[in-house]
Amino acid sequence: MMHPQQEFILQGSVHDSHAEMLLHRLQGLCDNADSKAEMFLDREYVFSIKNPNGQPLSLRVRQDLEKQDYPWHLRYLGQPEIGDRNRATLVRSCIDVATSNNVCQFLAEMGFKKDFEFISKGYMFKKGRLKVIVAKIIRLLQPDAPLAKDNYENVTQSYLVEVSVVAPSGSDQLADEIKQFTDQLRPLVNLEKIDPRRPA
User: Measured between alpha carbons, how far is 68 from 186 in angstroms, rounded to an integer?
Assistant: First the structure.
């Protein structure tokens, strides 16, 4: 039986010119300070389908481009909970499952449409239960084509920074734990509750 999970998350960005300083600070603050940060190179697809009520349902598929023998991942992220404005982080329901590499074909046969895809390249740190991501978001010039030097461009001159933890429902104390950790990253990066539904 799968228990309900929630993702507690704060997000922000750091300019390319300050990214190295942030990485050094994270190296000192996080676990395994004597070893290098784990690097990753993921390809992510976003699919959607319309519900009978008209609201689209979105699913994310993630593929590790460097570890070909790793399973693909299918992820559902619910709408952010906005009831408690005093909560230190954004909170949303989360389901993440490992799948076979034909998951995109399966979703297409179910009626899902691919909205977009992107490459995420960067560093992952751990601090206890917390996961810290510092990632460059890359756009493919030719979708569905291999990642090659002439087929991508950086979306911005900044890195996406996320601090998150996935835990069972009711683990609200984790929001304060994340906030206390992210306060140590100021003024290099200010992490906030970013609602994806909010107009840019």
Answer: 37
